[in-house]
Amino acid sequence: MSAPTVAVALDMSLGESPVWDAANACLHWVDINRGLVYSWQPGGDDAPSSVALGEPLGCLALGATGLIVAARSGIYRLDPGSGVKALIAANPEWRDESGNRFNDGRCDPLGRFWVGTIDAAEALPSASLYRLDGERLTAMRSALAISNGLAFSPDGRFAYHADSPTRQVWRYAFDAERGTLESGELWIDLARHDLPGVPDGAAVDSHGDYWCALYGGGQIARFDRHGAFLESHALPCPHPTMVAFGGADRKTLYITTATQHLSDEEKHHQWPSAGSLFAMSAPNPGQVEPRVTR
Ligand code: BGC
Ligand code: CA
């Protein structure tokens, strides 16, 4: 395993939601605060391209064609080439230009899109985690402050989810057919492992290990399928936000990072590569990211 190094030097405010499109050998990610969707084919000569959405957006998933993006105002189908978008469902927590924006999300193994929101002050339990079916959003968890860390085990039996300020990741029995989160249990408690920061975005590899970005903790932590801490990998910046396995063998771990919450001194002198896309080699391949088909 190599240490994380800069894959694409960027100055993102809140890089997030890397997703590897295996069929097109392309990595997509977003800058939430700047409302940008990036697309990049590693190994080629081309720099990443980006399209501006005109509003913040929390995350993306792969569509049957193009992308599904969860912007502040709602969930859209997006053609990342042209920037043309079409509304699928409005954000129930965003009315009259105020409220909570969408945050972390992911496609489940049966092709349904799940996406959570973030309390506008990142403190009150006003956010929820939703499941999208066609054009309908159903709240599946509520009373959250910052919905994050959503991922599924390779056998599809478990869903993992974090409400970041609690510093905990919960594991739910996932009923894939019904698309429901059954009996939940506390699975990872950063306090118990003496790990810094809060759990942000995550990805589960094909062996079932949970790789989680510790926002404010400057590292990626790896836990096994039982939630036991295995190791962590330090980054040269405090705010990694999410990870995705990519590359031809899906054994490159891509890591997005943020510069928000950093002072000018920290950003320019202490952590000059903050806001970049990082990459490191991983021991096990990632799962193939499913496409939203429902
Ligand atoms: C949110 C950020 C937040 C971070 C840490 C991210 O998912 O988008 O706004 O600061 O989590 O909780
Ligand atoms: Ca996140």
Give the CATH superfamily: TolB, C-terminal domain
Computed Rg: 17 Å
Number of helices: 1
Question: Oligomeric state of the chains?
Answer: single chain
Average pLDDT metric: 97
Work out the number of β strands: 27
Please report the distance between the alpha carbons of the first and last residues: 37 Å
- Strand arrangement across the biggest beta sheet: 9-8-7-6-27
What's the short version?
The protein has 294 residues and is mostly beta strands.
Describe this structure as you would to a colleague.
With 294 residues, this protein is mainly beta. The protein has one domain (5-292): Neuraminidase (6 Propeller). Helices cover 2% and strands 53% of the residues. It has one helix and 27 strands. A hairpin with a 5-residue loop joins strand 12 and strand 13. The termini are far apart. The relative contact order is 0.17. It binds beta-D-glucopyranose and calcium ion. Calcium ion is lined by residues 16, 103-104, 148, 200-201, 241-242.
Spell out the key features of this protein.
294 residues; mainly beta; Neuraminidase; 5-stranded mixed beta sheet; 4-stranded antiparallel beta sheet; 53% strand; binds beta-D-glucopyranose; binds calcium ion
